Amino acid sequence: MKRVYGRAAKVVGTIRVRLALTLALALLPVLAIGVGQSYLAFRSEGDARRQSLELAAGHSAATARARIEAAGVLLQTLGPGSVGLECARRLDAVKSRLPGYANLIRFDAYGRVACAAGTTPRDPERAQRPWFLDLAAGAHLAVAPAPGAVYAGEPSVLTAVRAEDGAGVFDGAMAAVLTLSSLKPQTANRFLPDGAEIGLADARGNVFSATAPQAFGPASAHLREEAEAGQKTILWSGKDAQGRRRLFSAAPLVEDDVFVVLSAPAPGLLSWANLSPISRMLPPLLAFGLALAGVLWATERAVIRWIVYLRRVAAIYAKGRFTVRPLQAERAPPEIRELAETLDQMAAGIVTRDASLRDSLAEKDSLMREIHHRVKNNLQIITSLLNMQQRALTDPAARTAMNDTRQRITALAQIYRALYQGPDLKRVDLRPFLEELTALLLAGDVNGQGSVRTEVHADPLVIDPDRLAPLALFAVEAITNAQKHALSERGGVLTVDFFVRGEEAELAIGDDGPGAPAGPGEGVGRTLMTAFARQLRGQVKFDASPMGGLLVRLVFPTPQALPPPQHQAGT
C-alpha cells in the first residue's frame, strides 16, 4: 500500500505537468496567430511610417522650393531698385500678409541693409558671402541655405534677387528670409512620431542648419549620387549627435546641392512603434493566459483535487487503516467516483484477505503448537519408559548410561515445551529455558545423595530451535558430568552462566568439586560436547573453576540478534 501511495503522489505531479503542457500546446496556435498578425501589422506600420517620412521630406522640400520661387517673384514685384522712406513700411506690410516669411530686406551694393521689414543683425562680411558674390557676378537669383547673420531668431534660408541701377550696374539685392520651422511638416499624422526635426544639408551630407542640431548626425555621403540617380527622396537610419537611433529622410532643395533632411526618432522600447505591436500582441497573450488559467482551474477543481483526496485515502490505507471509506468522492465526477469505488473495493478485499490470512496463521500456529505438544508428550513417554527400565537394571554402568540417555531426551522435550508454551513458535527466550532445564536435570538425578545449590545467570537472548538444540544438549553433558564427578556424593554448588560479548557468546558450567587437573577423561560425554560445539561453530574449553572445581566453557558466535517475542492476539 505504501508503494501505491508513492505511485499516487507521482501520478498527481505527472498529471499536472502533462496537463499544463497539453493545454499550452493546444492554445499555442492561437498565440502564434496573434503574434504573426502583430508582426505583420508592425511591419505594415513600419513601412507606412517610412513612407510618411519620405512624403514629409518631399513635402518640406516642395514647400521650400515653392516659397523660394514665390519669394523670387515677390522680390521682383517689389522692385529691387526702389529704395526710399516708405521702403521699410512697405516691406513690413508685405511680410505681415504672407505667412512663412521671417524678414524682407533691401541690401545695397556693399552688402549693407538699406531697409528691412524687421530687425536685421549686422554682418560685416556679408559682401563676401557666396550668395552675395554670385549676385554681384551677374546671377539673377541666389538661394543661401547659410545666409549668415541675417535673421537671429532661428535657423533659416535666404532667397535673394539681383538689383541693378539704370545703367545695369549691380546695385545690391532684395532678399526674403524663410525659417526652417515654417518648412517643418505637421506631426498630426499618426505615422509621424513626436520629435521630428528638419534641417538643411549640402551635397556631402553635412547638416549646416537645423531646428534641433542634436537630432542630426552624419548624413548620407551619397546624397548627390542618389538624387542624380532619380530618387526623389532618400531614406536611411543612423545615430544622431547624442547617439540615439533615428530615421532620416532627405529630398533635394536647390539643384541637388542643398537637401531638406527630416529626422524622426527610431522605434524604441517605449515608443509608439513598439507599443503598437505589443498592444496587438496583448489580446492573444491575455486570451492565452486566461484560457490556460481557466482550464487549469477547472481541471484542478474537477480532477486534481479529487486525485489528491484519493491520494490521502491511499496514505491512510498505507498505514493499515482500511476501515476508512472515500465518502466525499460521491460528489466527484463519474470517473473519479468509479476510481474511488475501485479503491474502496480494494481496501475491502485487503481487509478480507488479511482476516483470512490471520485465521489461517492462527490455525497454523494452533496446529504447530499441537504438534510440538504431542512431540513433547511422546518424548516424555519415552523418558518414562527409560526411567522404568533404569529402575529394573542392576548394573551401575547400565543404570548410568540409561540415566544419561533419559536426560538428553528430557532436554529435547523441554525444547518442544518451550516452543508450544512460548509466545513465538520460532524463537525461545534462553534465560528461562536454562533455568528450567537445570532444575529438571538436577531433579531427575536418581543417583545424587548430597544437596546441590544452583546458580543460573543468563544474558537476555532470543534464539531459534536449530541453535537451541545443540546448546541444550551441550548443557546436559556438562551438567551430567558435574553431577557424576563433583556433586553426586557430597552435593555442592553448580553454576550455569551465559554471557553475550558482542560477536561472541559463552556458556560456562562450573562446580566446586575436586576438579580434574588432567581434564575429563576421554569418553562419550566429551565426544558429544565437541560435536555440539562444532554444530555451533564454536569450541570447548576446560578450565579451573574459581570455586576450585571444573569449569566447562562453550564459546561460539553470537546468534543474530532478534527482537524480544511478543504475544500475538488470538493465540
Structural account:
The chain is α+β, with helices and mostly antiparallel strands. Among the domains are: 64-266, PAS domain (Beta-Lactamase), CATH 3.30.450; 426-563, Histidine kinase-like ATPase, C-terminal domain (Heat Shock Protein 90). Helix content is 50%, strand content 19%. It has eleven helices and 17 strands. It has helices at residues 2-78, 87-97, 130-136, 180-183, 223-228, 272-318, 334-392, 396-421, 430-443, 465-487, 524-535; strands at 101-107, 113-116, 141-144, 156-164, 170-179, 197-202, 207-210, 234-239, 245-254, 258-265, 428-429, 452-458, 462-463, 492-501, 504-511, 539-544, 550-557. The strands form four sheets. Strands 2-1-5-4-3 form a five-stranded antiparallel beta sheet, with helices on both faces. A hairpin with a 2-residue loop joins strand 14 (492-501) and strand 15. The protein is rod-shaped.
Sum this structure up briefly:
The chain is α+β, with helices and mostly antiparallel strands.
Within CATH, the superfamily of the domain at 64-266 carries the name PAS domain
Outline: rod-shaped
Largest sheet: 5 strands, antiparallel
Separation, N- and C-terminal Cα atoms: 27 Å
CATH topology-level name of the domain at 64-266: Beta-Lactamase
Q: List how many beta strands DSSP finds.
A: 17
CATH-defined architecture of the domain at 64-266 = 2-Layer Sandwich
Low-confidence spans: 187-191, 269-275, 562-571
Strand content: 15-25%
Helix content: 40-55%
Major beta sheet, strand line-up: 2-1-5-4-3
DSSP helical segment count: 11
Rg, nearest Å: 61 Å
Order of helices and strands: HHEEHEEEHEEHEEEHHHEHEEHEEHEE
What is the SS-derived class?
alpha+beta
Mean pLDDT: 76
Which class of the domain at 64-266 in CATH terms? Alpha Beta
